[in-house]
Amino acid sequence: MSEEYKKPIPSPQGESDFYWEKAKQEELWLRECPVNGPYFYPRDISPGALRKDTKWIKASGKATLFTYSIVHRAPLPGFVDDVPFVTAIVELEEGPLMPTNIIMDEPTPEKLKIGMPLVVEFEHINDKIALPKFKPV
Amino acid sequence: MSDLSRSVAIVGVAESDEVGKIENKSNLQFHAEAAYNAIKDAGMKPSDIDGIVTAGTSTLNTAEFLGLNKIKYTDSTSVGGSSFEIHIAHAMAAINAGYCETVLVTHGEAGRSARNRPGPNLSDPASQYEIPYGFIGMPINYSMACRRYMHLYGEERTRQALAEIAVSTRKWALKNPKAYMKDPMTFDDYHESRWISWPFHLFDCCIVTDGGGAYIVTKKEIANSLPKKPVWVLGVSEGHDHGIISQMPDLTRTWAKHTGPEALKMAGLTHDDIDLAMIYDSFTYTVLATLESLGFCKPGEGPDFVANQRTAPGGDFPMNTNGGGLSYCHTGMYGMFLVLEAVRQLRGETGERQLDDPKTCLINGTGGALSSTGTIVLAID
Q1: ipTM for the whole complex
Q2: Yes or no, beta carbons of B136 and A69 under 8 Å apart
Q3: CB of B225 within 8 Å of any CB in chain A?
Q4: How far is B197 from chain A (nearest CA, A)?
Q5: Distance from the B79 Cα atom to the nearest Cα atom in chain A, whole angstroms
Q6: Class level of CATH domain B128-204+236-380
Q7: What is the pTM of this model?
């Protein structure tokens, strides 16, 4: 945590402060549109329908694996100690797709099945930010 | 838009003086060399240029660097590597609307040797939701799309298709003296190359080089007065359906599903009329997904379509005859180089790799995280 962390850190914006605040409390929250339902990533005005009467909802933290890659070549020096690691797009129980990491030691294609159940786990990278990641149930 | 078909032509094309690994040249130097060479190729003068277009830097920079100070149409549309296909459409629109007569489109990128690189914009969605997880660089983004394709259509046959594309493209590169990759590639070489981001091997990924390119679009009357045969723009279509990879509506279908049919319709041609396909190959998977999206085959049929080295020299579907981004040159926004090869093949200027009198070419650029596409149909009389 803190000074050791060498990877890119999210920079919250006005429309996402609440999301990151809740993540720090180990809760995953989504925006919901009255027309098209929950969506990711959070913004006040819903994508497509452009509704302003959207609201925050708390997600269950359950998801399934939609697709992934096993990264062998670190994209930045900060990731060198992580390879191989898994970047993934997961399908949240509420419907939206979300980019994340799968927490797994020595990942292989055999261990990563599309559709496998996952649950959220938060990695606190500094005093302000916790990254929602997912691990197999 | 079909009344604009054949209203403009590409009349000059060129690379920078060198492409490959070239140290000590700036992005703008590559723009300038290519512009100089393209104007010369067209048989024109700098004063003939009254429209300027580029991507990745402002046209304020490129026009000033070149000393072009009577610009009447300016366009810095930058939506990734497909920008240089989209620029043909914009040049066509601008010329027909009367903004200008002759548009110079330039590209230059020290993709390999740049002395400094801009950092990410911290307020972008990617900086909050993808980059912190290591979604950095296109191999990682595109490999996740490819994994989804494998899930839907079968891992083994997808893998074989990727190998076919890598190997056939290298065969073309060996016929191009300007190609960066000089050694033959066997199927074993492909399968044994190291993992970058599974399911991508090293040889699924484009090379990273320095270089630039430029082309000139002008109206019919001027095109017909120049020394080289005009290459007519028959059909154009552009667009995008997402920005970052996790927002892509369907990871196996690019927006070429729209731009391909639209460009062919405007051209009054069908897939069977196309003599040469120039398909943006940032990755082997880009080609597979694009051929299907364009409608050359149905979803999931790409592996059968490219089987048995059908796209290689001597095959009945010649594709990426310059050796592609995979083996010839890829500066970061490769779409410029698709146009150069298309025009040269139609003019019959490509030496050992020249096709037998091609009359039509379909170009498809893909930019961003499979985000934007531009499809162009060209023909020569």
Answers
A1: 0.96
A2: no
A3: no
A4: 4
A5: 20
A6: alpha beta
A7: 0.97
